């Protein structure tokens, strides 16, 4: 297998709060359905991303790593499942107030998988907000009483958001996404969610969604400050034990050279381009490096992978090549 940037077939999830805006990202979502999530990179028991391009097309990410662990991850003994879950979210309506457990809570409850995540705001309608954390001084008992009274929102920190902002939400953070937001979500590979309040909403059949009040109260970190993790907008956006996220911006005509050594995931936010498989360049000490050039070259032989806004590319650790940008492009680089 000659390493090349891997693209994946998205996995669409219908949600009561979803819509059709993911079509603007080129997603062929089912018409007339409320699609809230497009899982771009997943390796969960019931949801495994399938490679869409090149000689590995049709294989799952999990099987490809099993067959080529060193080339893809850089580690011959890479432990599966893949440690990231990457989604695009279309919140046309507000999400439930919810929380994800940490490792200690999962052990204490004897169930669930821990989940830490971040939200990068791709697009936001005027007045859009998120709810991130509980206000200082709110106790577990006070929050439990608010659940009974239907006044949970009053105890959450409401944050006005704009495109280009990134919010880190460690496990144990009570949160909700408001209406009118398009978000890139990077998280640990868990689908464990405990809802505490769903705005008295019912589905098309008039049925309310299940709540998980006991588990949520056990999972929320009531002693965490609501301003403990401030918003970031440029450079290194997130640096936690599970993943690192950097924001990049390249202008039309630029070329980014990538060199073997570290697996990375590129989430394309705007623009378009292609990979070319260009020859690597080494510095005077012989060490491989990443380099930007101001003009497009034809590149050397290698797999050419076109990409556009909304695509998620996994760049194998063994890949050496160039990425050419055919329009001004913003992207996130995720590493583990």
How does this model look, in words?
It is a single chain. This protein is mostly beta strands and 336 residues long. It folds into 2 domains: 8-235, Jelly Rolls; 244-335, Jelly Rolls (Sandwich). It contains 5 helices and 25 strands. The strands form 7 sheets. A 6-stranded antiparallel sheet has the order 2-3-7-14-9-12, with no helix packed on it. Strands 16-17-25-19-23 form a 5-stranded antiparallel sheet, with no helix packed on it. The chain has a 5-stranded antiparallel sheet with strand order 21-18-24-20-22, with no helix packed on it. Strand 4 (43-44) and strand 5 form a beta hairpin. The relative contact order is 0.19. Mean pLDDT is 90; it is low at 278-302.
Short structural summary:
This protein is mainly β. It is built from 5 helices and 25 strands. A 6-stranded antiparallel sheet has the order 2-3-7-14-9-12, with no helix packed on it.
Q: Tags for this entry?
A:
Jelly Rolls; five-stranded antiparallel sheet; globular; mainly beta; 336 residues; six-stranded antiparallel sheet; 5 helices
Low-confidence stretches: 278-302
What is the average of the pLDDT values? 90
Distance between the termini: 23 Å
Can you identify the CATH superfamily of the largest domain?
Jelly Rolls
Number of strands: 25
Strand content: 35-45%
Supply the CATH class of the largest domain.
Mainly Beta
Number of continuous helical runs: 5
